[in-house]
Model the fold of this input.
Amino acid sequence: MNQDVDVAVVGAGFSGLYLLHRLRQAGLSAIALETGDDVGGTWYWNRYPGARCDVPTTDYTFSFDPALEDAWTWSEKYATQPEILAYLRFVADRYDLRRSIRFATTVTTAAWDDTAQRWQLGTNNGTPVSCRFYVMASGCLSAPKPPEIEGAKDFAGPTYLTSRWPHEGVDFTGKRVAVIGTGSSGIQAIPLIAQQAAHLTVFQRTPNFSIPALNGPAPAATVALLERDRAAYREKARWTPVGMPRQRPAEYSWQLSEAERRERFERGWMSGELGGLSTAWADAVSDVDGNALLSEMIRGKIRDTVTDPATAEALCPQDHPFGSKRPCLDTGYYDTYNRPNVKLVDLRREPIATITKSGIRTAKANYDVDAIVFATGFDAMTGAVLAVHPMTGRGGMKLADAWADGPKTYLGLTVAGFPNLFLVTGPGSPSVLANMAVAIEQHVDWIVDRITGMRDAGHTTIEATETAQAGWSRHVADCTGLTLHRLANTWYTGANMRGKARGVMPYTGGLGAYRGICDEVVRRDMLGFRLGDASGNTTCNDGEVVRLQPDVRLLLAEMAKLNLPAMESLGADAARAFTIQARASRPAGRPVGEITDGTLPGAGGPLRYRLYRPATPGPHGVVVYFHAGGWVLGSHDSDDPLCRDLCRRSDMLVISVDYRHAPEHRFPAAAEDGYAAVRWVAQHAAQIGGRPGPLVVAGYSAGGNVAAVTCQLVRDRGGAEIAGQLLLCPVTDHDFTRPSYSENAQGYHLTKAMMHWFWDLYCSPADRSDPRASPLRGELTGLPPALVVTCEFDPLRDEGIAYAEALAAAGVEVSQLRARGHIHTSLAMVDVIITGVAAREQMARAIRRFAERRIR
Ligand code: NA7
Done:
């Protein structure tokens, strides 16, 4: 006999409870299977002393029912585990959910039956369950990680796992206690165990960053906002990156003085919130340099607090940027090491050799203890989904095999090959990087809406396609590039588990963006899903929901909101004024050694230039750079952030030279100015502080056209030696029929209409096949080596690729960088489009290599 339901749910924590409520409201039959003997999930199991959430409970709370919010008031800023558990019990009772939960029940097998179009579940308690839909609401941090320490079973005294703490509590009075592990659980428990135990030895493998929680009443500012308009506050939270409305700074670390940074740091430190420091400045957790300043200030706090310098130093994290590993919130953690009954053992200096009958032996000493606490963490994100039971999808495929190289999901919610399976807060969703309560409500709403939508449309199966899933994996990885998570060995990446596949598992693109994407999938006709009915008919709108880089996508969305006029409708002067204004709103580039402005003689009069000199001792190799702007817009200083970036990364002197603009000066003014400028710089390299000898010529967009043309003119006319050319999204031809012109005609900043306008202002049709306008049509042999950079969503993409291929065919040494998911302007938007960093680094390496090869 089976228990037949529409939906079976694993877990009765935040996710399982809300799921049951929503499913029941939708008229679906449901059961939750829960290993514990009560509701609560994480908050049922993690009962160690000091266990609290690290998100303020004003935010870490259900928001689906205003009446529930009226009925419950949290007693302090960070609620304790008992209070959160009491809340979840209250929720279960209020909505009469317990009757749909089978407690003390673990799912032992789960298999998709393709004929019945149902999941068949075996359990260790009660009848098997047959369900149309199977939802894993089993949490991200539910499967404890084995201690992985030799001799753990030999210890004669009691051992405790923080995540399986005895319900009756533990009395350590008069005992010598060891705690192994200094993640959030260890850091929360250590101060309290130290107060009770006779002696505490903390075994630390990796020091973590921890911030004082400054617990107390709920933050007055948040309470005021909630009281003013709770619905608006909750709605705002849903669209923020972390599920909490918080101010995000505009200023970058290098735009602030040391005193200003100190002031912001102190404010963040005293905020008592994890976000307080990560928002100290705009690059605090996205850039290694911006982060290093912050990390060092935190280490300063540790050194100020801990009196023994050796202990303080051992507590200072040095191996990962702040925020790349989950930082902790503590109450008196660092102070605890000033107590006479507490000792820190640094396992990096003396690794644990074995656990013995009487304690812990390290490479240097024996530590006899009466009890051991393992605060050693979890098999995170995938552990509960994989370890709870073997799960087989279509054709008997095991989920463990499908995920052997790391978890693969579509939206973190579904898995190709596993029809009608949903994950709540699965790998590939924001989950642990957001306020879980808000993330969970979004997941549950999306899942239940899909199930009811399918019921109404007569669909019985839903399954992600391989294309959609592969696209999502790429997008998740692209998002990771925006953060520093890849630089730390953490449970986010699977690095805390022996043998586990590595890769950042949570979605780092932000909860608000994620929510928008999930909605978009539905709006675009269930993009990336195959839907089937009871007769076996299927429909599928296959595709990838996000192909743009995540920051490019956000930028375009922001720009779309501004409803800007089409550039070509403005006229040249107004368009120039407009671009100057737009540039002013972007972050100024980072400091270089020196910036000087000057003029040099062009083909038709003086040309302005701006010279960027590295901070290192010269003389430096020289790059002549030509700016973007369709031969109409821009100037010697208009690509300032990019020039600074090239200068800093390549350690070369970059001289950005203007050229005459159309329509005042039409073809071939720009080309002839380019040639004149390069000749002048070649002759005056030493005078401007550069290294005499071959130059590198670089240009972007129309400037890329000027650069390419200049290289051809120098080859033909002489006057300079060129070591290499960097062509970034160059205009190389006047042909508008290549596919990239139709595929990317509009919507990606540079439009086809703009390019028509630029060409019309610059060059009459009769002249356009002249190689000085369309270098692709020129003789290409004998040109300097080139790096040609193109962007996927750029009308100019295909003519850039055509130029690179034509150069190669002509025997020129050429390499290509095809920037996936980028638009025409992406790579020049330094500190805005962070995902462009790898490409900018590659460009800098290339120009440096060009220059160095010619010296040897
Ligand atoms: P964490 O953050 O994974 O911390 C586990 C800690 O245990 C961490 O310091 C580990 O050091 C340490 N550990 C694990 N195995 C060993 C062995 N074999 N020997 C010595 N030390 C070991 O888990 P938590 O439970 O504290 O926190 C999990 C999340 O819950 C937290 O991030 C919050 O989001 C809430 P390592 O760093 O691996 O060197």
Observations:
- The chain has a mean pLDDT of 96.
- The chain has 25 helices and 29 strands.
